[in-house]
């Protein structure tokens, strides 16, 4: 009597469901931080509308600002009514949709490309999960998270007293931004083998579409057609709190489905662990410059840093060129001078200071990704291979820490030079490059503190370092939103957020950047000491 072994039938839906549960468990902290940050940005902006625009004259003044200074439309969004809720939605559109897309991009890339890079996907390949179960699971979790975020925003807005129709419309816009970001990340994860490159490319595409929408809206008139050629423009044209156009959400859902289907098709045309974009063949022998652990750390981060630098430079040039002329024209307006007094800036530089303080948060996100690379290297076993030779653990970790600290300094310098160059092209003043670069570099120590907190967690609590690193950044974002809406006192903001001490509006001493740098150095040294006392890997 003979028996025949039968292979278990593949059940793609069951396999995707199993992996989705694993994604929810593994990335529960990322999901929580992302969801709370996105919901907080939107609810905080709308909650502050009553105090920001308490009277009809205040709302009329803001409406006039949006008509006179189109640069706000470029980076934020259009307002379609002069009510407090519509003006708050205009301010929350840019930050809310970008934050929603950022979390979706990170989630999808971590669940697909990062798993392939670490070898985890190859181990699961022998199970009856289905060829594309990981991609299906990642999209299911990201799209479902978008729905949850939308429900939370809608409930929060209605509870705050906002009109129900506009609340649901704004919530749908934010939730749909999650869908757009997830679909973009699903495609870029098939193109490149680097996790940082896949995430940077997806987020760069999303922000580029945001700027295309903004250029069309800023130009107005016959150029408004540009707001209908990208998903970000469709989201803006939903018009929350202003005669909502619900049908504008339909093309977003269709676009998401088409792009997701493209991602599945591309996934079927490549090998596991490879990307559709060919990797450049390296030389047969490594150069002498790669014989140090620092050089290896730089090489691992250079693609991500290059992509982020390009995106930051593009945003900075556009902001400097468009904003310089607009703010020079309206620098004498009452609202501009009042804002400039609070920010301790020249009225002509008010917009730039405001925008740079907002852009420091995504740059800090890149720095967190960079410092957490050392944990990914350890978990994947590559760090252990290096440590089996003559490289010590402190020198190995210090190399990755040095690169992580250099990344925000480089990106903020690029931002300052780009803004200054754009302003110079508009006004002809070459001194703008030096002035704006000094402004952006003064924010670096606040990012260093967040990096040092994540590194200390890596040394002391390696299994929780990812959660602690992102939580440190989330606290900075949410604390600033809370203090602006009056939810928490300014003293608590100064105590919990390093970004408060580099913000000219809240800075208590001119020595704050130096003190933050010293604090970051102390935390980093504690992280190295803790790493020296624990096992590797852990």
Could you name the key traits of this structure?
mainly alpha; 74% helix; 538 residues; globular; 24 helices
3D structure, described in words:
Helix 10 packs parallel to helix 13 and helix 21 runs parallel beside helix 24. With 538 residues, the chain is mainly α. The chain is 74% helix and 0% strand. The N and C termini lie far apart (50 Å). The protein contains 24 helices and no strands.
What's the arrangement of secondary structure elements?
Layout: H1 12-26, H2 28-47, H3 49-52, H4 56-68, H5 71-75, H6 84-111, H7 113-118, H8 120-124, H9 133-159, H10 164-191, H11 195-219, H12 231-236, H13 249-267, H14 293-330, H15 334-343, H16 350-371, H17 373-380, H18 382-387, H19 393-427, H20 431-441, H21 444-460, H22 465-484, H23 490-496, H24 512-532
Helix pairs in contact: 1-9, 2-6, 2-9, 2-22, 6-9, 6-10, 6-11, 9-10, 10-11, 10-13, 11-14, 14-16, 14-19, 16-19, 16-21, 16-22, 19-20, 19-21, 19-24, 21-22, 21-24, 22-23
- In angstroms, what is the radius of gyration? 24 Å
Instruction: Indicate the percent of residues in helices.
Output: over 70%
**What is the helix tally?**
24
User: For the residues shown, what is the average pLDDT?
Assistant: 82
Gross morphology: globular
| Proportion of beta-strand residues | under 5%
Largest beta-sheet details:
none
How many β-strands, per DSSP? 0
Brief summary of the model shown:
With 538 residues, the chain is mostly helical.
């Amino acid at each position: 009597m003979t028996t025949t072994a039968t292979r278990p039938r593949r059940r793609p839906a069951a396999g995707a469901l199993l992996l989705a549960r694993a994604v929810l468990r593994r990335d529960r902290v990322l999901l929580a931080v992302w969801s709370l940050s996105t919901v907080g940005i939107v609810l905080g902006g709308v909650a502050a509308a009553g105090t920001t625009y308490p009277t009809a004259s205040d709302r009329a003044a803001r409406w006039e600002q949006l008509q006179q200074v189109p640069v706000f439309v470029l980076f934020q969004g259009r307002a379609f009514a002069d009510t407090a809720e519509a003006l708050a939605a205009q301010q929350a559109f840019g930050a809310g949709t970008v934050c929603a897309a950022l979390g979706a991009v990170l989630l999808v890339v971590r669940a697909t490309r990062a798993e392939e890079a670490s070898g985890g996907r190859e181990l699961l390949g022998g199970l009856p999960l289905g060829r594309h179960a990981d991609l299906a699971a990642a999209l299911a979790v990201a799209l479902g998270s978008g729905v949850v975020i939308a429900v939370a925003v809608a409930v929060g807005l209605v509870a705050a007293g906002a009109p129900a129709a506009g609340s649901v419309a704004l919530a749908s816009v934010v939730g749909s931004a999650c869908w757009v970001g997830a679909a973009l990340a699903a495609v870029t994860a098939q193109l490149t083998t680097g996790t940082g490159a896949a995430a940077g490319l997806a987020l760069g595409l999303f922000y580029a579409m945001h700027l295309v929408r903004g250029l069309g809206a800023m130009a107005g008139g016959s150029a408004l057609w540009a707001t209908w050629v990208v998903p970000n423009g469709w989201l803006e044209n939903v018009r929350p709190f202003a005669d909502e156009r619900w049908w504008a959400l339909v093309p977003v859902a269709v676009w998401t489905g088409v792009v997701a289907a493209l991602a599945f098709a591309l996934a079927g045309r490549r090998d596991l662990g490879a990307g559709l974009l060919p990797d450049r063949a390296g030389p047969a022998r490594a150069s002498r410059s790669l014989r140090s652990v620092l050089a290896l750390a730089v090489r691992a981060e250079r693609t991500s840093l290059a992509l982020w630098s390009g995106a930051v430079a593009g945003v900075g040039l556009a902001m400097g060129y468009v904003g310089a002329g607009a703010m020079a024209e309206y620098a004498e307006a009452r609202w501009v001078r009042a804002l400039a007094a609070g920010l301790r800036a020249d009225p002509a530089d008010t917009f730039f200071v405001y925008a740079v303080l907002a852009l420091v948060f995504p740059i800090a996100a890149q720095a967190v990704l960079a410092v957490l690379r050392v944990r990914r290297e350890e978990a994947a076993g590559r760090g252990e291979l290096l440590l089996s030779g003559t490289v010590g653990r402190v020198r190995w970790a210090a190399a990755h820490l040095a690169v992580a600290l250099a990344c925000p300094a480089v990106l903020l310098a690029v931002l300052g030079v780009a803004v200054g160059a754009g302003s110079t092209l508009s006004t002809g003043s070459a001194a703008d490059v030096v002035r704006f670069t000094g402004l952006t570099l003064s924010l670096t120590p606040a990012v260093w503190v967040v990096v040092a907190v994540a590194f200390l967690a890596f040394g002391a609590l390696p299994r929780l370092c990812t959660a602690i690193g992102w939580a440190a950044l989330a606290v900075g974002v949410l604390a600033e939103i809370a203090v602006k809406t009056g939810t928490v006192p300014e003293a608590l903001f100064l105590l919990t957020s390093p970004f408060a001490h580099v913000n000219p509006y809240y800075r208590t001493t001119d020595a704050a950047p130096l003190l933050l740098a010293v604090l970051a150095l102390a935390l980093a040294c504690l992280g190295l000491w803790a790493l020296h006392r624990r096992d590797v890997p852990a």
